[in-house]
Amino acid sequence: MSAYNLKLGEHLKKELKALGADLVGYANKERFATTPEMLRPEAQLPECRSVVCIAAHHADASVDFFGEPNPNYSGAFQIGMIPKLDDLACEAARMLRRAGYEAVVIPCTSFWRHRTYKNVPYEHAAPFSHMSAFVAAGLGEYGWHGMVMSPEYGPRVRIVSVITDAPLLPDPLYSGKPLCDRCGNCIRSCPGKNYEKAKLNDPNFIDFTIEGKRFRYPNINRWRCFYGEQAHLDMNDLGSIDKLGEQDILDVIGKGAKRIFGQGYCCSSLKYCMTPMLRAPGYGGAKGPSRKKEKASFDAETAMNAIRRFASDGFAEHISVRPMDAFRGLEGNFWDGFRTEDFYSKFETVITLVREISDFSGIPQLKKRNARELKQAVLRRLEEAQSDIACWMDTMGEDGAQMWDVSGFGERGIALAGLTARDGCELVGISVCVTAKLPDCDIDLDLPVHIEDGAVISGLERVDVLGVGSLADAEGADAETLREMSGGMNTLLAVGCAMDRRTLFLACRQPAEDGSSYVGDQIQMMYRSNQTAQNIASALRHMGYRAVAAEDLTLDSYPTASRLNDFMPGLRVHAPFMAAAGLGSVGRGGFNLHPKYGPRLRCTYILTDAPLKKTEKLSAFCIEGCTACANACGVCAMKADPTAKIMERNEERCAWVRTYALSGEDGAATIGWKLPDMPVPEHPTREQMEALLQEKDPVQVKAYLMPNYTDVVVEKCLQACPLCYRD
Question: Is the pTM higher than 0.90?
Fold first, then answer.
């Protein structure tokens, strides 16, 4: 009998590819033996046996046309790929957990330790290397630029990893023809001249083996990449700078050097690289190669069926298809140096996906705290569909390029379709330009939600729980304020996803000292609950009811810092709303306790005047006398009282950790960030904490211009709750 779970391995690959993964491979933990200890998979999950590596390819046109005139101008490059890969990794982890195994997701875009950290000997290290996983899983090998290359797509791949204790049969290492022939395009194309010997780190080369297979490439000073990618400094200025480190970058910023914001980054070494077997001449004045692909025979009906499927999966409500010429007049939205006319000449058709979202006209007071989050969740899902359509065109031998907000293509597509938003709503549109000639058409789509006899009976596949109750049952001052604003929308729904208990338990206290998987898990659960809640709210509005979806039902509570300078609603201030929707009871620590998930639920809410059936109320209670949450708090924000119904909490001391990430021991220090040398005051004020943000790590404050950028915050009170881990 095999020591490996072959059936699970086959099933996982089949399901992930059906969901949109281009490549899936498995590696065993032994293949990471030469990696620094803190970066090995077992440092993330001590019981690890396998790594699942999942990759999606960059749409060819998003590489061929963009990243010009230099890497600061990325345009369509990688739009939709990060949400797509994070979604795929989430699905993979859920499949593994349903099979009885543990699984920890390493987010696609994770956290970088820009400085050396403990036994990690180099700078700019992610807590786990997706590229190492890609090679160890047999999906390709390293190129001279230090990025990975696959036989199918060259370097045009993005990757995500799932670490698991499932015994999956490792795929053989790649053993075909070399994927890098040292053509030198990466060296010649780099505007920073980063491959010159004088600019390399010492030693000049990175050299290692995986199961005896040797990999070697230049040891590039990644502060030089940071210069353009993270600090947004003009890469055209970098080539003349020989020596560059962290302080040099901060000095350049301090002198007022040109910075290019809002455009992203597309590395020239990737853009101008292609494996020799797939190398094809670039088109439309391109300086570098394109990817060779075979034309497939298909008709308009086949294409529209595929587009409809992707749009439906992306929760679009309308598809508009128009000729490229209808988008003339928007050329001014492209930047100087872009091959605008070549782009218009290359593409025949523009496909626009449209979704309606509420703008809070029912409860305008909630708009400030929620409008951005709701729009971001809708765009994230639509962008997955946008990427899927562009990549499907690649498989057919055609091309597709995802368009971005400021291009104006989405707005034009909505106008050409003659669509208008209903009162209190906004239309969001995103477009894909394709080389296939498709007929003009407009297609209405139904969201995957069906409400019948006062109950939601479909459309809940991506979430764990749905509770329906009454706003009148919510306790506390925030609930009272909301009742005054609700305008008669008294039915309260809570749509919830549960954070993974093993990921929560390990956060920042496993050998990797990493909290990025925990933060990423929370974000993914928020996106899923948000997207499903908006689908339900849209369905209710279509039925003639008023309905507003919101992540945050409060007006001024302290949120929780998240990655990329984002914030999530506080779990405790929303506990009364979860309880009122029937999802549990408020416990001694102020968290809502669900009978199955304990305090691990992340919810998005809907307020409506629809007469929906209330769900049966669930109850759960703290362990008698337990004050583990209060005892775990490093800043003593909660007063331990085993007899209290809800223990007293100092919200500002809690915010010191949770909102402003001013306490290193709660996560920020594990990234290597420098923090203000100041103990938490007895009674910190909001104004004091806002001022201290400017004294945080200079890389966050000056380079990223975001003092909460990639902060890790692990709520130790939540992590300590024994109800998080029961069977």
Answer: yes
